[in-house]
Hints:
With 321 residues, the protein is α/β, with parallel strands linked by helices. The protein is built from 9 helices and 16 strands.
Amino acid sequence: MRAVVVHETGGxxxxxxxxxxxxxxxxxxxxxxxxxxxxxFIDIYQRSGAYPMSLxxxxxxxxxxxxxxxxxxxxxxxxxxxxxWAMVAEGTYATHAVVPADALVGVPDxxxxxxxxxxxxxxxxxxxxxxxxxxxHPEEDVLLHAGAGGVGLLLTQMLVHKGARxxxxxxTEAKAELSREAGATQVLSYDGFAERARTLSGGRGVDVVYxxxxxxxxxxxxxxxxxRGTLVLFGAASGPVxxxxxxxxxxxxxxxxxxxxLNHYLADRDELLARxxxxxxxxxxxxxxxxxxxxxxxxxxxxxxxxxxxxxxxGKLLVVP
Length: 321
């Protein structure tokens, strides 16, 4: 076994490739040969110490691969199954990982394992945002920030599939083109996007804003909404939003504000299977085109973190052992 291990928290240079013993699955676990691991901001937060972890630990928490062995009490999967998972265990930047069996979902034979690894976390995030947090309906106007990001590209495609008009923001023309290819009706600059979004929605404001940027976009996101519109704040790429007076929501039109996260939309195994299954089915039916922005070997994990943090990439980054 080879794995990217964090012995001490810090910058990307603390990611080191070691050769730990291949773990044995406990009674409720499965041992999986990892085909590819997703790279996410939570990996950076854990590596840096922003999210405390017991040291040492193997980086990564999202992957896909093939089951090699199962514990005595496992009924959910069997040896040879193609599986994927997210947000349930550390240790995916590795050739092998042990995972709670009830966190694994099957991958259809016609979906490549690297694509499954790339779509699990961000795909399920996009899915709960547009089907559960604010269920989008045909002909609604939606503003989505960072349209060329991993979640942004997938969410745009889901919204278009649901019949919405999608306005996105992007920081460069190259990213704007990617967003348009995903189906965005209009791609806006971050400068003055609220006024432009209101104009595009006929002056009334958009029905919902999906904002994963946070501090730098929050105020204008509120200003983009129609009366009784909804701001779904699901990230803070530019920093956390400062405390606000709830009366602001009243003054701007009796607005709704919510701050969801994926773990609250995976309440049990039934919901996990339904949500992951829906996402993988959209991939299988070519409704979703999963953009893999870069593949990195284990020795290149530090470069993957640097590229993600600097937002030099689009789509999803993978560590491929």
